[in-house]
Please model this.
Amino acid sequence: MSFEGLELSESVLRAVREEGYELATPIQKAAIPPLMAGRDLVGCAQTGTGKTAAFALPTLHRLSSGASRPREQGRKVRCLVLAPTRELASQIGESFRAYGRFTGLRHSVIFGGVGQHPQVKAIRQGVDILVATPGRLLDLMNQGYVTLDRVEVLILDEADQMLDMGFIHDLRRIVARVPKQRQTLLFSATMPPEIRRLADEWLHQPESVSVAPQSTTVEKISQSVYFVEKREKADLLARYLAEQGARRTLVFTRTKHGADKLVKNLTRVGIRAQAIHGNKSQNARQHALAQFRGQHPPILVATDIASRGLDIDGVSHVVNFDLPLSPEIYVHRIGRTGRAGAEGIAVTFCDREERGMLREIERITRQKIPVAGGDVGGDRGERSDRVERGGHQQDDRRRHFSDSRHGASRQADNRQGASRQGSSRRHASQGQSQGGGGGGGGYPHTKKFGGQRSQGQRRFSRA
Ligand code: AMP
Model:
């Protein structure tokens, strides 16, 4: 379906054309017509499906057409978008800038972790669309810099993550200050009962749209798992990166501390790496992202909170250095690769304690993740069972590792050369030539990296 049939105004359509979009994505096809008709909407969709345009285009249409178009003076916020993280808020702001560039509407993005002065200044100059993380918004509201009494459209994006991050009380306070007469949109990657309850409370007879069940999205991603002792993970990662010639690799750790430590370990063996997590300053996060998007990306080691919702093209590999705390997060993580129809590779390093979560992931995604290799001594019964279940795919994946008695730094050198030609295709084709790997799919034991991940961290911390 083309955008022409969606009755969007010419100024919006022109921006869509300039973005090079020809066909509406499924979520856009399903969401735009009811939104154009003024309906409330609950959307179950992940980042990567085109959901931002699905809510931004009809909103821009609505705000830029009709008699209520404001004059330069006295512009007030008429659309409020709430998002869980600074990165997602910035991305949404970018989308409004791109899609709204011919509408004459103004937008602004506010989030915590940076000085409030420029944000206050922008708001004082008048904005039509405000994209915000809940904490900073509430802060500025309490200081009297932001009023929401003219809001016509309220959009909650990644609602499940906002709840996970403990924003519910802030959200309630904010929503209470938005006029009841409004259009409300709620997007969420998952639909747990709390989200449904909020939708019942805040939305009026919403249209429900849902796209790409998560398991469908992950199908095009080549997944595998290595069984590995916790203490061997960093070493395994260095060798994996070297052998894969991975082009743009996102590595997930569960904790900020774990991310920093891993970056140190990789750097020590000559692999460029940067961390992105909630303790980093906004500037450091933006800098790391810019480098990651660049021509010669470092390995980006991220915690979930910093990376969910990020839209980065061309991620060739996702490595789950630690298993996530829920299967949904696994799906989000690996969804960073394989975007826009591209193929991607996702590999998981699973230690003994993480096996329960691995099984849970397999249950939710309704697929067995092929075993690539590794051996956790003393638990062979479980492992051989898994290898059998991995079937022939396991044989392919086992080739991730060649015989590598050389140390990690030698491999890091290899990586420099390999990375020029490396691509996800390599994963599929390299196998035959590399046997090795230690018979039972094991990985070679070389020198050890640092110690254990710190335990007992909070599930999430605020961005
Ligand atoms: P989102 O799910 O909003 O993060 O969008 C994911 C990516 O899809 C972004 O890079 C958008 O620029 C892109 N996109 C959104 N809509 C379309 C479309 N109709 N055709 C092609 N690309 C699109």
